[in-house]
Amino acid sequence: MRSIWNGAISFGLVSIPIKLVNATESHSISFRQIHTADGGRIRYRKVCELDGEELTADQIGKGYEEADGSIIPITDQDLASLPLPTAKTIEIVAFVPATDIDPLQMDAAYYLAANGVPAAKPYTLLREALKRSRRVAIAKFALRGRERLGMLRVVDDVIAMHGLLWPDEIRAPEGVAPETQVTVREAELDLADALMATLGEVDLESMHDDYRTAVESLIAAKSSGEAPESPAAEPRGQVIDLMAALEKSVRAARESRGEAGADGGAEEAEAEPAAVTPIRRTAAAPKAVGGKKSTAAGTKRTAAAAKDGTAKKTAARSTAKSTAKSAAKSTAKSTARATKSTAKSTAKTASKAAAGKTAAKSTAKKTAAKKTAAGTPRRRSSA
Fold first, then answer.
1. Which of 16, 222, 36 is nearest to 119 (CA)?
2. Stretch 100-106: mean pLDDT, rounded?
């Protein structure tokens, strides 16, 4: 592999001559701009705005444009004269746990190769020290005209360096998280966990670029004069019920892996009823293959059934309330009538009892008077 930078690793007082090699490469397919009328290539020429002359690479330098549009020329000699200790040195400044590095800071990756036989011993020393400490080295280096931050770690038997963005180059995620308050239920989390467990792990070596393969097939077909095939895109309906989507995903993942009990996720979720989580619609849901009605139609039927059931429940509640009110009124009237009748009967009885007492008293007085009259001797008149 061709080196892109030569320098040394500064490890305290130890200097390790190294070569910097790109650790990654792009396999993306690039296209040229052409004239659609005749297929001619479109090329860009570097032309001076002042005299209109086309320039070559050795005639082009650097310049800084100020706010008013004026250009300040900057030469390579100007940059070389700057007191930059990392111009040709990867200067290690600290050793930290790998977990302290935010993946957002990760940039391009490089391999560091020992440059010459004398560099083999200090190179191996640093590599083994990194392995044993289970830490990574934080370093500063200069590349392509600017100072950068790097992270050194061990990959197999090689020291690799990841370029890192400076902390102030990481943007804060303001306004990115959903602003709507959402509640996630335990049943939904259980299904999500089941889906994650079903998908399991993957061998990254088996991953490949499907889009690039499709583009290569398209180019090969057009090159041979054949009509390129246009595979039909899989229909994707609008997600209305989150629980149903999770259950279906779990079943599909298990079926794709040939696992038994593909409906296990649905049985686990039956303990708690599914809640409909509406998502903003952007288009009508397409019909599924096989003549089945769309998810939207099924949702309408479900909603209609729910409305019908709600109406029946409301009617039953209203009837129950009316019946209870009528029964209460009838009971109250009957009780009032019975109370009035009892009061009247009690009054009559009391009246009769009083009359009986009065008659008894009158009879007793008459009897006493008669007895008194009978027991008193008559007086004789004097002659």
1. 16
2. 93
CA distance 146 to 5: 13
Q: What is the mean pLDDT of the chain?
A: 75
- Residue 170 phi, psi dihedral angles, 5° rounding: -90, 120
Quick one: tokens of 92? 């290690």
User: Residue 355: its pLDDT value, please?
Assistant: 55
Say how far apart CA 248 and CA 242 lie, in whole Å. Answer: 10
Residue 23 and residue 159: Cα distance in Å, rounded?
11
Alpha helices in the chain (DSSP H): 76-80, 120-133, 186-199, 210-223, 242-256, 264-268, 295-375
List C-alpha distances in Å: 155 to 138, 152, 162, 169: 16, 10, 11, 27
> Average pLDDT, stretch 65-85?
86
Nearest to 93 by CA among 56, 125, 122, 136: 136
Cα 139 to chain centroid distance, Å, stands at 36
**What residue ranges in 12-157 does DSSP mark as E strands?**
14-22, 62-65, 71-74, 89-96, 106-114, 136-143, 146-155
At which residue do the structure tokens 């008659």 appear?
359
Q: Quick check: helix, strand or coil at residue 352?
A: helix
* Tokens matching residue 290: 């096989």
- Separation CA 38–CA 363 (nearest Å): 147
309 three-class SS = helix
Geometric angle at alpha carbon 114, from 112 and 118, rounded to 5° = 155
* pTM strictly above 0.85: no
